[in-house]
Design brief:
The protein is mainly α. Helix 10 runs antiparallel to helix 14 and helix 10 runs antiparallel to helix 17.
Length: 382
């Protein structure tokens, strides 16, 4: 029998020579540095478990700031391949695929008959208002306009609850008021400002019925263009293999849809002007139509702040133009009306709405060309 070894390091030798117990559990090797995707899956566990396909995970990762460059740190060439691995490694829940919680996305299938009828409701009410105005005289004209505008507001409220332009996540406070002010200015603003520049108004000025009819008719192509953009974006999302590739394809699609609607709005406004014998060019009303389309398109995808701010800014510009003309009647303040007098009353709406269109177009090009906008995940930041 050998003597036990003592001295410095004796305990280490005894431990080394001690037989290993067969039933002692072994500690698993730490894979934190070897498996970088594991930590990412842990951070987005709920997203991965609720996802119905890898595209939803890719959209959620992009919404949380993960880009193709970030995916390279996880040994993947883009976010889409990273999402595919995360989708494959996380077990799905036991519920059938038909009852899983799917992300709320804009509908891209063919619109039901009820939705198509709702898209024609505001044009019908607007046309009826113009016909009633043309067939009445005296005080009845004012009553026809007031009742028609009220009915048009109700029709828009009903129509916007369904279809691709319905708001998701609410709207910023005051957006409806800004929209109403812009529509009222399109009907009465130019005539009121021209009368104010001449020293009036001394008598009631007629509304721009051509703008009313053209803007009401433009609601139907706005709905169809929004549905076209949603369908095209979803198709490109399914075909793309990277976020940059999707953005590069979605950006021309957005510009094409906006240009298509702008052409349709100009054509309808020219047609309304021809029917109502209006010689005024519809530049301001056409820009207002594009502005309202971009604002509602952003709102329909959950981006509500930019439309509210821009619409409010356009209202402020038009309100300041009117206030400057009346402020010029104060002593020593004649210079306040010089900017409006130099450009003309009709140019106020063109400049204000044109600036708003440029701002919202940049915002839409940045936000609506992201994959997360078309495969939104509950809880993802907007």
């Amino acid at each position: 029998m050998s003597k036990s070894r003592t001295g410095e390091g004796g305990s280490a030798v005894v431990a080394a020579e001690a037989p290993e117990k067969p039933d002692s559990p072994r500690r698993p090797a730490r894979r934190g540095a070897v498996d970088p995707v594991k930590a990412l899956i842990h951070r987005h566990r709920e997203l991965c478990e609720r996802a119905v396909d890898p595209l939803e995970i890719a959209a959620g990762l992009e919404a949380h700031g993960v880009t193709d460059r970030t995916a390279a740190r996880y040994r993947h060439r883009d976010v889409f391949t990273l999402a595919e691995e995360m989708y494959a490694r996380v077990p799905r829940d036991d519920r059938p695929a038909a009852v899983r919680t799917a992300p709320e996305v804009p509908p891209v299938d063919a619109p039901p008959r009820a939705h198509a009828l709702l898209a024609l409701l505001p044009p019908a009410v607007g046309a009826g208002t113009v016909v009633a105005y043309q067939l009445t005289d005296g005080q009845a004209k004012s009553a026809a306009v007031a009742v028609g505008l009220l009915a048009l507001g109700v029709a828009l409220r009903i129509a916007l609850r369904r279809g691709p332009l319905r708001a998701r996540g609410g709207t910023v406070g005051g957006t409806r008021a800004w929209t109403g002010f812009l529509l009222l200015y399109a009907l009465f603003g130019d005539g009121f400002l021209e009368a104010a520049l001449r020293g009036g108004p001394d008598a009631p000025w007629p509304p721009d019925t051509a703008a009313l009819l053209g803007l009401a008719l433009a609601y139907a192509p706005a709905v169809w263009c929004a549905r076209l953009f949603a369908a095209g974006a979803r198709r490109r999302l399914a075909q793309s293999r990277g976020l940059e590739e999707f953005a590069a394809g979605a950006r021309p699609l957005l510009l094409a849809v906006v240009a298509l609607f702008a052409g349709a709005a100009v054509g309808l406004l020219l047609l309304a002007g021809r029917l109502l014998d209006s010689a005024e060019p519809p530049y301001g009303a056409a820009l207002l139509a594009v502005l309202l389309l971009l604002a509602r398109l952003l709102t329909s995808y959950g981006f509500c702040v930019a439309p509210g701010v821009v619409l409010g800014g356009v209202c402020v510009l038009e309100g300041l133009a009117v206030a400057s003309v009346f402020g010029a009647r104060l002593p020593f303040c004649w210079w306040l009306a010089l900017p409006v007098d130099a450009v003309g009353a009709a140019a106020v709406q063109v400049l204000a709405c044109g600036a708003g269109v440029l701002v919202l177009l940049v915002a839409a090009a940045r936000r609506l060309t992201r994959a997360s906008a078309h495969a939104a995940v509950p809880g993802a930041p907007r």
